[in-house]
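Exercise 7.
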Amino acid sequence: MKALARGAAALRSALGRPGSIRSKILTGFALILAGMLSINLCVIALSHHLLGEYHVLTERVISANRLIPIARDDVGQDAYYLVAGRRTLETTQLFNHMSDIQQGLESLMMEDNSEDGREQLKIALRTFGTLQRYCDQLEQEIIWGLSVASRNETLEEIRDVSSLVYSQLEEYIYQELLRGESIDQTLQRGFQLLLLGDLAAVLLMAAALGILLIRIDRTINDPIQALVENTRRLSEGDFDALVEDAGESEITVLNKSFNRMVAKLQRLMEKIEEDTRTREQLELRLLQEQINPHFLYNTLEIIVWLAESGDKEQVIQVVQSLSRFFRVVLSKGRAVVSLREELSCIESYLYIQKVRYADILNYEIEAEPEALGCRIQKLSLQPIVENALYHGLEKKRGGGTIRVRAWVEEGDLVVRVSDDGSGMTAEQADALRRELRGGLHQVSEGGFGLPNIQKRIQLAYGPEYGIELWSEPGCGTQVTLRIPAGPEKS
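Solution. The predicted structure, written as tokens, is:
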């Protein structure tokens, strides 16, 4: 009882006399602070929960994405090497790839997938079981020494089924990304509620302060008037006009408490802004470092093919082009390079592709001298050129030409990549333009990479910059990139 009495006395001492300025202000302040903290704690808890789900979903998508090249390329390739006799049952990696796919699918099944994603995984597992049976059948045919024709039939079945597993993994990733979009929308609604809650808290604070001011006006006015009178008397030389020493002023204590609260909130807001900038920078850096590994695989296969054919000079030129390409890609960790370096990267890339697609690919690269020194985000043009090759010229009979032009216009750097390939229908072009305008996560067929480039540019330079698309069936496609014409750093 004595301890309880001492606690109550301490609380009364902290709050002051009932009805005092300190008691009224601290009571109102406590109510306002509790409301603001309640709103922010709810939003923080919601954000933490949803961001955790978003992180787990991202890990699942990454795990599934790692299985795609194995199912799409490695299984069929190693099965072919086994049938062709280039590898034996002791040296083949086919069954290791099968084990990796099985472990990956089973691991994904243990995760908290969406309902559609889990159903897609079940389908993929059933299809994988079929693929496993064909691989076992191929192993038995080799052991029994069956005919090459029989092995080739099994090989075709393996290729077809592995392609089906790859397609089902892509569908699973699509379903999980849809779930990610739902989580993102929930986050947006949560932040909107935070803004509304903060607005309501501000209005409530204003109303509470108005009531408090009305109630304590007389209480504060008399001491202030006394202070003014004593200050006037002191200025006239009446040194007896002393203010009664009543200890630390309540207004002073309030100001100090309020300043401490503002300082804490300011540090918190600075930390939030710093974290937001860091997240955007990391996201931009992640987008900049996306490199298609199949380009490296294909280039190495070209080098092997040229070496086997004895074309030493061509091997040297391809290796030098690959070296120049990755010198720009790595570029000592820089995220921004000069247009001169970016065009060198594009020229190396197109030269290598020219060796591979000699019958269908021609290219031209042209840049005004004043544009070469401008700075551009690394790997901004390579995905556009890759689209022109794979979605334009490769689908057109007789091949064609990719043209890259760069110039400076009204303080902006303009780079245009055009091809005279198969082009897109009006519906396909409109769908891709909507994605570019809306920043959608989904990428339509024939437009892989463009929404990412748009996002990178607008994160770095603002929404007034980006890429524009023109395309007509049978006439080709033209992609124009516009960014500020910043000079190259020395």
